[in-house]
Amino acid sequence: MALTSDDVQRLARLARIEIDAGATRDVQAKLDAIFAMIDELLSIDTAGIVPMAHAQDLMLPLREDAVTETDRHALYQQGAPSVAGGLYLVPKVIE
Amino acid sequence: MSWEVVIGLETHAQLSTVSKIFSGASTAFGAAPNTQASAIDIALPGVLPVLNRGAVERAIRFGLAVGATINRRSVFARKNYFYPDLPKGYQISQYEIPVVQGGALTIATDAGEKTVRLTRAHLEEDAGKSLHEGLPEGLTDVSGIDLNRAGTPLLEIVSEPDMRSSAEAVAYARKLHALVMWIGICDGNMQEGSFRCDANVSVRRAGEPLGTRCEIKNLNSFRFLQQAIDYEVRRQIELIEDGGSVVQETRLYDPDRNETRPMRSKEDAQDYRYFRDPDLPPLTLDDAWIERVHAAMPELPEAMRARLVAQHGITDYDAAQLTSSRALVDYYGAAAAALPAKDAAAHKLVANWVLGEFSAARNRSDVAVAAAPVPPAQLAGLLRRIADGTLSGKMAKEVFDALWAGEAAGDDDADAIIERRGLRQVSDTGAIEALVDQVIAANSATVAEFRAGKEKAFNSLVGQVMKASKGKANPAQVNDVLRRRLEA
Q1: What is the pLDDT of residues A15-51, one digit of tens each?
Q2: What is the percent of chain B where pLDDT is above 90?
Q3: Any idea where the domains of chain B sit in the sequence?
Q4: Of B196, B318, B425, B456, which alpha carbon lies 20 to 30 A from B74's?
Q5: CB contact, 8 Å: B21 with chain A?
Q6: Are A61 and B75 inside 8 Å of each other by CB?
Q7: CA-CA-CA-CA torsion for B318, B321, B327, B333, nearest 10 degrees?
Q8: What is the pLDDT of residues B224-241, one digit of tens each?
Q9: Closest chain A residue to the Cα of B27, Cα to Cα
Q10: Could you give the ipTM of this predicted complex?
Q11: Contacts of A17 (CB under 8 A, 6+ apart)
């Protein structure tokens, strides 16, 4: 399947990235190549094969339910652009 | 034209673990902002999530309680969306293969019992909180982000669209709420957001295929759930009857205005781009673990209800009411155990009082069972005096009110109050006969009316005897003696 430039802009919006008009064609060509590869994969007969959930055959390790962390918010917030009263501040988001 | 309402619920139950689902940070409610947000919860680079065994065990417990399939292998996925209170840019959830699949709950409706099928229940993490008000002084045009809640374990329980009215939806939500508390996987605190519902609502004309649904988000009380659904049903029916059509969308309920409104800025939000989380291999459960969880399960409400009917001889209705809450049935059990008699009459007396006076008093003062001022042993002390004929029903209510008001404390205090207020019922036949004779002699006109066939006159005479005894005569005995005398 070939993508349209509208598809590319929609994907960009979903990914919260900006792709200017000049770059659209380039991104479109790269994505088309990826979709072509997906089409190729889809042509393989996978009937009766259980889908793989993870690239490695690992068991999920579990931890006991216990509090092991201490309050380190002062350290963590040193890297934040804006904080007040222990809160991270961001541009106003309200529904 | 009659409309059919179709409702399915998605419920988020916060699991009662002490630590988060993927980190060792505390889940305690009410801590200062961000003091319980670890490097994993705030999504610092280079960290990896490690699943909490306690959260998994609670999910298994739930699956067993609703007769669901526990998937021996389930998979975590990333649900991608952008919001400041979700620092990773995705929520870890389960998508294609959840830990719990199927199951059912039975609810009571006006038309009898009804089964609501469950689709699934899956483990996921909660997001943080965005604060728009009450920020430190001088801050405008900003929101504050508190990530203490980020990573709190949730079990999202999804029902099939099996409910047909807001009343059924509330009955289901209440049943589910009682069950998660009963099996100890969630504290059920709705004010703190530990149990919240999203309702999928659609309408259709009888016999037609399903209509387009709207999802109402974040209903954190049973009353709001009912009101939001009622509003949404009216809105959809009016829309269609006016020639419009329902648009599938997410709506928020505004309790102040009692209406639902579409959520804005969510144009593309439905496209979550789920994919399997490469940080987490599949969760595998072995039969031995599931068997251990099964062995440690408490007796479930339905089983206990049947047992109370069979062993205690109380009615199925009373047993259903009592087992609607773990705390209530525990109270009933403790009161019954403190009574010397173990027959059906004793159990019925306890059930009547726990569901009657006790529950009414609790509702009036809005207190939880555990916080009630009359502990079970004290109630049993009172019931003993009803069973042995010391107290009439009316006197017992007076003693109960005095106990509730804290007039005395301790297990024998019903007796102390009976003594102090002189509430001993007169059951001495000789004394009652004397009173009856007095009243007959002094009310010849009323006696004549009764003999002429006016049954009301009898009640008036009973009232006179009770009055003459200052309310202390055993009413049943007064009835007997009076009738015997009058018909002699």
Answers
A1: 888 998 889 999 999 999 999 999 999 999 999 988 7
A2: 68
A3: 3-290, 299-421, 429-487
A4: B196
A5: no
A6: no
A7: 10
A8: 999 999 999 999 999 999
A9: A67
A10: 0.81
A11: none
